[in-house]
Amino acid sequence: MGERKVISKYYPPDFDPSKVPKIKVKKAAYTKVTTMLPMSIRCNTCGEYLGRGTKFNAKKETVQGQDYLGIKIYRFFIRCKKCAAELTIRTDPKNSEYVCESGATRNYEPWKETNEEKESRLTKEQEEEQDAMKALENRTIESKKEMEMMDALEELKAMNARANEIDHEQLLEYNLQKQEEQERLQDEEDEKLVQSIFHNNNTSTIHSDSEDEEIHNNKTIKK
């Protein structure tokens, strides 16, 4: 039993462990992790949308030669659930976000909007410094927008006030009355239908009785 299970091994008398070559185990370049998508992306290969929170078995590596204030940057390799294309995502500690490197496109990138707003603000300030009329025009436009926002807010407040004034008991009573009215109309229609059916039956019975009486009279006259 011992030999069958290969428990005992034979070592020759001249065995020297120092002469046995060491096996070099390559350190894995990637670490396998289970992760979830931190944002919604779209696969560039098949166009499949992958929502935020979708689980993946990913390979993680540390980006060499890149960091932000000593914070390491990590890269994740995942595969599309539909076409199995490789998608690459990288951390972005500068903006506290993630960046799609290859294979996919992010649906919404908030820092881009922030940068565009900053550039627009700086451009507007430069125009106002150079042209007083432009500054007056911009202030007029901003005042108009504020007035429109105030009007919209007042309208929403009025709508909410009207909604709060509705009595739920009155609404329930109105619905009950409407249902009773519908049932009453349905009963009236059913009654009219029944009366029309009975009227037709009575008319046909009267006609048949008169025809039978006429036939009987004709037979009596012939006799």
Automatic annotation (TrEMBL):
Pfam families registered for this protein in UniProt: Saf4_Yju2
Region (Disordered): 111-130, 200-223
One cellular-component annotation, GO: U2-type catalytic step 1 spliceosome
Principal place of residence: nucleus
Keyword terms, alphabetized: Metal-binding, mRNA processing, mRNA splicing, Nucleus, Spliceosome, Zinc
Molecular functions (GO terms): metal ion binding
Subcellular location: Nucleus
HAMAP family attached to this UniProt entry: YJU2
Cited PANTHER family: SPLICING FACTOR YJU2
Protein name: Splicing factor YJU2
Source lineage: Eukaryota, Amoebozoa, Evosea, Eumycetozoa, Dictyostelia
